[in-house]
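Please fill in the sequence for the structure shown.

STRUCTURE ENCODING:
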């Protein structure tokens, strides 16, 4: 079952997006492929190479896009957001919808600088079979008409300008990409060394992928969001979390990007090691596919990221030798009871905007941990006065 069918990727994030103000300027243009290529070459359209690694397309689908442009078939529109013009000498754009299409075009034309293809040559074309096997350089050199048709093909481009809040971008992104986690947009809006670190660690299979039932990095970026949420809660929760998880995660990413080498790199790496240690401790108690899922006795229980956060947060405070046969039995027995508690259940279903529900989740699990493992942990990733 695809991850987006098993869980709601953006439920609490979108709850925290304020009513979008669409008083911004929205206009449409038909841009030539040549125009897109020039904007990408000049870095006015931002294509993060690390994000391209998570491209869900294969070379066959990429080839079909190039063929469609050559033979004049319609291609879905591209949506860009113009960066605040007062901050840049030249217009610069973020991709809201169309990253895979633009990555395909850039990777075909400029494979050295934008390596988004496995092998940047056309394959399995059904209409223009004679083009199979061609690279862009070969198309340019030997197929003048087809090369011209490709460069002069156009795609409708909608541009959002002068938006007052990035809530507009989150709202629009979710409308256009219902099966993609909003973390994909956050990686674009808050690009930097910390954002790249999150991509780098999850490009290889990690314990979180086992928990989520994935055999490869997640193209929706949900694996990255789960890790980010825990790191942000551990490092900033007590000082800065006010109930709006979207704002909290955005600020945390911006802060860690800005002072990565000077202040946060080692802290984050230490936190991530503890994150994985916590998954391993949980795996001594649960099957890996049970972590982050309530023990209610029902079949096909969905992964709950709010429960997972609570589990990881407190299991990071345990030691491996705390998990004995007796403590495991005590924990499982009490956890099953907690999973049937209607107040705790409500706290797992509620938006994280509600600080009261947030407190219930963490305080209830904190008490359970202390009783089962005979600990005296007394910490919440939230201000004590909240």
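FILLED IN BY: designer on duty
SEQUENCE:
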């Amino acid at each position: 079952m695809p991850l987006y069918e098993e869980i709601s990727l953006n439920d609490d994030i979108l709850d925290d997006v304020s009513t979008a103000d669409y008083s911004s300027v929205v206009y449409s243009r038909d841009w030539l492929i040549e125009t897109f290529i020039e904007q990408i070459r000049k870095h006015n359209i931002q294509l993060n190479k690390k994000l391209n690694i998570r491209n869900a397309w294969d070379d066959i689908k990429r080839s079909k896009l190039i063929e469609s442009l050559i033979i004049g078939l319609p291609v879905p529109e591209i949506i860009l957001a113009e960066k605040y013009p007062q901050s840049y000498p030249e217009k610069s754009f973020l991709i809201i919808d169309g990253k895979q299409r633009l990555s395909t075009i850039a990777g075909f034309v400029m494979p050295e600088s934008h390596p988004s293809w496995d092998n940047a040559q056309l394959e399995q074309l059904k209409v223009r079979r004679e083009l199979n096997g061609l690279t862009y350089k070969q198309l340019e050199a030997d197929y003048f008409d087809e090369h011209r048709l490709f460069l002069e093909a156009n795609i409708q481009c909608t541009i959002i300008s002068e938006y007052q809040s990035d809530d507009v971008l989150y709202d629009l992104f979710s409308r256009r990409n219902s099966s993609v986690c909003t973390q994909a947009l956050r990686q674009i809006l808050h690009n930097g060394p910390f954002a790249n670190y999150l991509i780098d660690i999850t490009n290889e299979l990690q314990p979180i992928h086992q928990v989520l039932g994935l055999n490869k990095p997640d193209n929706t970026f949900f694996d990255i969001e789960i890790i980010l949420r825990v790191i942000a809660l551990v490092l900033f929760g007590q000082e800065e979390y006010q109930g709006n998880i979207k704002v909290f995660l955005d600020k945390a990413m911006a802060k860690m990007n800005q002072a990565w080498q000077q202040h946060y790199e080692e802290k984050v790496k230490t936190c991530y090691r503890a994150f994985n240690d916590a998954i391993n401790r949980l795996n001594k108690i649960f099957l890996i596919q049970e972590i982050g899922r309530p023990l209610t006795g029902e079949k096909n229980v969905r992964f709950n990221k709010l429960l997972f956060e609570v589990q990881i947060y407190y299991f990071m405070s345990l030691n491996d030798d705390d998990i004995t046969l007796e403590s495991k039995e005590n924990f499982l027995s009490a956890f099953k009871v907690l999973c049937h508690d209607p107040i705790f259940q409500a706290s797992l279903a509620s938006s994280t905007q509600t600080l009261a529900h947030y407190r219930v989740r963490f305080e209830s699990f904190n008490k359970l941990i202390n009783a089962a493992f005979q600990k005296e942990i007394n910490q919440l990733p939230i201000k004590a006065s909240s």
